[in-house]
Amino acid sequence: MANNQSNSPLTVSSTPPPPRKTFLQKQRAFWASKQNRKRAIAGYSFIAPAYLLFVVFLFIPVIWAFYLSFTSYTIFTPGEFIGVDNYTRLVNDGAFRNALWNTTYYALMVIPLNISISLCLAVLVNRKIKGMNFFRASYYVPVVTSIIAASMIWMWLYDSNNGLINYALIQLGFNPQSWLNDPNLALPALALMRVWKGVGWNMVIFLAGLQSIPKTLYEAASIEGAGRWKSFWKITWPLLAPTTFFVFVMATISTFQTFGEIYAMTSGGPVGSTTTLVYLIFVYGFERYEMGYASAIAFVLFFIIFALTLINMFFTQKKVNYDL
Amino acid sequence: MKKWMLALLVLTMLIVTACGGDDDASGDGSAELTIWVAGNSAQIQETFSSIIDDFNEQYESEGITANVQFEPWGELDQKLSTALAGGVGPDVFMHGAAAAAGFADGGQIEPLDAYFDGWDDYSDFNPGYLEAGSVEGEYYVVPIQGANRMMFYREDIFQEAGVEIPETLDELLEVSEAFVEKDGSRFLRAATTLPTEGNDLQQVWSAFLWSNGGDILSEDFSEAAINSEEAIKAIEFYKGFFENDLTPIAGMDGQGDQHPLGTGEVAFTFDGVWAIEQILAYTPDAYDHVKVAPPPRGLEGTTTLVGSSGFFMNANSDHKDEAWELMSFIGNQENIEKVSAELKFLPVRLSVADADFVQEDRLFSEFVQLTNEVDGKANPNVPRWTAIRDIVASSVEEAIYGQLTPQEAVEKAELEINEELNR
Amino acid sequence: MNKKKKNLKQFSRTTGLYLLMAAIAVIMLWPFIWMMVTSFKPNTEMFSYPPTIIPNELTFDHYVQAWRAAPWERFFLNTTFVAVVITFSSLLLSALTGYAFARLEFPGRNFLFILLLASMMIPFEVMLIPLYLIIVNFPFAGGNDLWGGGTGLLNTYSALIVPRLLFPFGVFLMRQFFLTLPKSLEDAARIDGCSEFGIFWRVMFPLIKPASATLVVFVFSMIWDDFFWPLIVINDQSMMPVQLGLQSFQTSQYTTDWGPLMAATVWVTIPIIIVFIFAQKYFMNINVQSDK
Description:
The structure holds 3 protein chains of 3 kinds.
Chain A: H1 23-32, H2 34-68, H3 85-91, H4 94-125, H5 132-144, H6 147-158, H7 164-171, H8 186-211, H9 215-223, H10 228-239, H11 241-256, H12 260-266, H13 277-287, H14 291-319
Helix pairs in contact in A: 4-8, 4-11, 5-8, 6-12, 8-11, 11-14, 13-14
Chain B: H1 2-18, E1 31-38, H2 42-58, E2 64-71, H3 76-85, E3 92-96, H4 100-105, H5 113-117, H6 127-132, E4 134-135, E5 138-139, E6 142-146, E7 150-154, H7 155-160, H8 169-175, E8 181-183, E9 186-192, H9 198-211, H10 229-243, H11 260-263, E10 266-271, H12 274-282, E11 290-293, E12 304-305, E13 308-313, H13 320-330, H14 333-343, H15 356-360, H16 362-373, E14 376-377, H17 385-400, H18 406-421
Parallel strand pairs in B: 1-2, 1-3, 9-10, 12-14
Antiparallel strand pairs in B: 3-13, 4-5, 6-13, 7-10, 7-11, 8-9
Helix pairs in contact in B: 2-14, 9-10, 9-17, 10-18, 17-18
Chain C: H1 2-39, H2 43-46, H3 61-68, H4 72-103, H5 109-119, H6 124-136, H7 157-161, H8 168-179, H9 183-191, H10 196-204, H11 209-225, H12 228-233, H13 242-247, H14 258-283
Helix pairs in contact in C: 1-14, 3-14, 4-8, 4-11, 8-11, 9-10, 11-14
């Protein structure tokens, strides 16, 4: 069991890969050991309850939706199997291309900002000093503020004529902006709000990640004369890799699937500048009832997120090669 | 370890079965109806609950009972279409009439012509509201709320500017400059506020199109008619307010739920009755200055938008006759008056226009008066309407933002609408 | 002298730290503070320009009005019940499953894990109708036989709880944290003759308390904030969650009653903040020893 962790593509490990064997050989060798058998049975039974729920309430709906993406299903009519027509229709759909671009732009703004700010916040609050409980809680408040109320408050802040942000800009001598009504600013404005709403979530995960790094490592590093900056890059960053990977994947998923505030604040406008893929799925699926076509968009989105996850997995594996 | 697994499994099973529902009522002559009402504010719940209570009392002997549920506006569509797709939709539901064609096309709602035949109340309904929910000559809706748009204006601001309400839309655009007050680039007062996207944009703009004598679709709904001189004129007029700096593109209605007429930040708007309540709730002092009038004439006269929301019957209901009893009960004189009085819904029955509560509210009664006098037109009920509506709105929007010329906008709309109609 | 200088340096550093954290706190809390301030203003002052930071006139009317607008006691009871059941069950499920994916080897492990991970990447909008049909046709519940016929789990607490017991992100989170634990702990326990479950339950699970606390906070706040799913599967108001109460201030398609909405948002948000503050003491729990 020396390679307990090493053959997982997602883990960070430096153990060299064992010599290649065929699949059958591997299986036979694995099941030959009593200890392996015992542990594998434990593994299957540990995941069984969760997997039962997974299959019924997630996997089947996903496969179903995947099937629907090859049909002309329209909520009220079953439709028929039309092969890849929905997917070829996507290629020429200007609204889809626009949404694809908006989604990419939005993600490029939100994900890096979200991850870097939340990591900084986690490092900042990862200490035991008086009043820290208050600061941590206050950074988490946006996460738990209902999206309905948060959207209304932000619409008001962004209001071009009477909003607080423009009021502040005018007082400071800047030009007021039309924020949510300016095709160039609306998406960045929504991105800013998403960062505000999301950093607390990731901060908490990073904080948990920082807690699992043994203190002794920092002590050793400081004896060797490493500064804070150096020990961050030499110890914190590499040991945080599993956490960072988690944060990245979750941030990607949640950013690509943002819907609530777009629905409440801009309805995809002005001139389609905040129509993201998920918003487009909503429009096609629930306003025009073309659920088959909407499903096809959903699976394009899926492949994008999945590809990004794989790329990140690849980098995480390559970069992290620590011996401490 | 095994004990744990077992406990977990048992727990899961327990939750599934123990909480599993137990109610299953069907058959044996009696009927249990479900009705969904759009909106779940305390007032809406109170009013409709009491109507349904009355219904249940009156129909107890016949074994009909109705359960009412209130669905928030924002999620109504998703919940309704999901439930209908699952075959467990309500027997009767409230929805905007514009969706009628989509539902009818999917076989989800029942035509009501047969029921209307023996229904005396029919003739008291404002024909425009019934029309708004009819598809290919068949009626589908019992209206509960009218949704017209009129012109509201501030009399004091007009006087201050020395301007009379002009005769035509073009003149309105010309005189509007007199209302505008600015501080740097910030509007202290704009001439008006106009929606720049979505549903609202389509509703306000279409009234100008119709007033010019144009239309979105051809008479028989078979093709787009939007590529016309009238439509271009309507876009130019609409766009004129932004181009001439008479109103900001971001609108003047961003301060929470206040109405800009109430605060005096605009001189006129094209709004529905809801504006009256907003003015009363947040800026009661302004009420006396606000007046309502028919919008000025376009090239061909004045046509306003007529819409309605009302109750539809689920085509898959097991108790259609009973459902009709419920629908006609809600639509009776007494209940329409109750709903209109308590919720300030625009009355859908002609006789309600004279009711006391209407007369007590000056603006409300003037508005009701106008809805019965001014020409009105409903959006076309075609199955692809929601998509067509989006096309109209986004084409006009692109023209407003200067991404397309009015000519290009109507050409684009024509092309896309025809594509939708042929899908 | 030197010591004094060091103290001074320490002092100014701490002050700087506090100033920085306070500044960030103001930015993060601003919309919420603004919401609270607004909730105490009368309608006529609510939207005045320039905005008043401190209300000229204090009123509790919006709170009274908001409390009357919905059966809040019932809503709070429902949400708390559902959130507590889901939070603890899903913590256990996620930990068990995440542990297996991280520390136990079995054929198909990575495939099964990636499948779980991938399922999160599908937007919920397109899964809604299939999932709804599963709920409606759930065998042997709500008047259903094996092939349906009734309303299944629709309009039951089960519909609120069962489909949301498993959060793939919870499994993912737990897995990532179990990966960081040193292997020697597990080996030592194994030599002592601990069963596989015993290793998980007595040795490993207690070591990831920060992650468990994180998961508790996340799941609790997700359930607390979710309004869409309950709305879809519940018809009976007596089972509805607190978030539905917030929806009831939309008085028509075009208008919203701001004051009561802001007031109600304040009391809907506070319980989760309390949960967060309680969970905090587990965020800082250092008892992992390094053996690498």
